[in-house]
Amino acid sequence: MQPLVSIIMPSYNAEKTIAQSIESVLQQSYTKWELLITDDKSSDNTINIINEYVAKDTRIQLFKNEKNLGAGGSRNRSIKESNGKYIAFLDSDDLWLDNKLSIQIDYMQTNNTALSYTWYQKFSDDGDGGFVNPKLTVTYQQLLCSNIIGCLTAVYDVDILGKRYMPLIRKRQDMGLWLDILKDVETAYGIPEVLAKYRVDSGMTQNKFNILKWQWNFYREVVGLNILQTIRCFVVYAYKGFVKNRI
After folding, report:
1. What gap in Å lies between CA 62 and CA 52, rounded to an integer?
2. Residues 149 and 63 in one domain
């Protein structure tokens, strides 16, 4: 019997991409899921597109923020409303391959895994890009210096962990959640298959300076590292990010 998977999707002015993202959920070979979309006060046609899908499939639900909260707050709203044994994440500009949930949920059930992730591929409107193949295990200390868990690939087990929420910060919310989980479980496990596609040409892309600024503040204000610890992690993170972005 398939356990219910709650798919968490934030949306904000995603009229150009969200239909593709929802379609990639509808095409899953694994069918026992609910898609919980929380819209963050979009001003374009995003809401109308979502409502078309809500009308066609009862597994899809829409929630609307009264004010703009950012992706973390929107994901937390969907997590609060969720009913699944498993929590999975997919942003409104990314895609899943059609066997993503089948492979990942089977792996997690077989191995009683609390947090898992997979390999993925970059893409844009110009076509497919490089593959991102993180190592197959990661601990708290290792993740501090390199967030190898792609949010679009992550799934956690509510029965093992309880509902876990993202910190209410504008960036790096996913990394904050993985670190919170890895305080309680020793290791997160990767699946060596490309099961998702990460869009690199959406409006969410930022310049490299802002990314590094957010990462520094994340170490200091969210994780609570001292200056020496922050410098060590920051240098490693920046180097690994440079190498990854060259793929």
Report:
1. 11
2. yes
